[in-house]
Amino acid sequence: MKRFISLVLVLLLAISLFTSAYAKEKPSIEVDKLLIKKGAIGIKVNNIDNEKIKVLIQLDDEKIYYNIENGEEFQYFPLQLGNGEYKIGVLENVEDTKYKYLYKENINVKIENENDIFLNSIKLVNWNKEMESIKLAEELVKDCETELEKVQAVYKHLTENLTYDKEKVNLSSKYIPNIDQILEDKKGICYDFSSMFAAMLRSQGIPTKLIKGNSEFTDAYHSWNEVYIKESNEWVVIDVTKGSAYFNENIVYNMIEDSENYKKDFEY
């Protein structure tokens, strides 16, 4: 009888180990489509051992890839390519630059208001009402009467209180700004400043794009913002990094830049 019980226990242990191993190996991918009409999609991946995982957002021939990490939270990505049938994919690295699909789906996207895309909290512009940066934005704009005044108030505070971090180099391609950390450190790089500016303005209902590309301000690859000004019904270029540099060097500067001096590659 004891031998029989021992055999049963061994069998149950083997089954348990096999089940656990299988569960670990089986990838879990969830998609949140609740914000599609607002121009964002949420994706959550789990149980994927491979660290090189990407999200594909594609409309027609235009493709944008994002890094995504395993985790318990949804990560949100913008659907900024316009209306139409998108291909949404999650891919993992096979070898070198080769990837295979773990998940793919075609989704018809019809965004109610295209400016809403640039109000969302997304992976690159991550914010919520509990963040100190967002509480600061609320305080900065409380006495403003127009949206332009709100933009000016936030811009003034950031350019006068942030400095460029020249020691922040050789960052991973997976680097994402933490805006509350930037607020605490009072320094960062152009990517940090543009993400923080976008998050603070979005929290106030002001559509703001995070842009990556090149500018005449610097030879390095750059990041800045485009902000929608409701009163004039136009998108304007604003470069917090340049404004901060000019403030610290006592150089007179304008908040709104000449768009001819900027060449965008990506907008988020």
Largest beta sheet: strand ordering: 13-12-11-10-14
Count the domains: 2
Helix percent reads 25-40%
The number of helical elements comes to 6
- Beta-strand portion reads 25-35%
> What is the first-to-last residue Cα distance?
67 Å
- Helix-strand string: HEEEEEEEHHEHEHEEEHEE
Give average pLDDT, whole number: 92
CATH topology of the largest domain, by name, is C8orf32 fold
CATH class descriptor of the largest domain: Alpha Beta
Structural class: alpha+beta
- Uncertain runs are 17-23
Radius of gyration: 23 Å
Strands, total number: 14
Question: Main sheet, how many strands, which sense, barrel?
Answer: 5 strands, antiparallel
What's the shape?
Answer: globular
CATH architecture of the largest domain: Roll
Describe this structure in words.
- The chain has 268 residues and is α+β, with helices and mostly antiparallel strands.
- The chain has two domains: 28-115, Immunoglobulins (Immunoglobulin-like); 132-267, C8orf32 fold, CATH 3.10.620.
- Helices cover 29% and strands 34% of the residues.
- The strands form four sheets. A five-stranded antiparallel β-sheet has the order 13-12-11-10-14. A four-stranded antiparallel β-sheet has the order 4-3-6-7, with no helix packed on it. Strands 1-2-5 form a three-stranded antiparallel β-sheet, with no helix packed on it.
- Strand 11 (218-229) and strand 12 form a beta hairpin.
- It is globular.
- Residues 17-23 have low confidence and may be disordered.
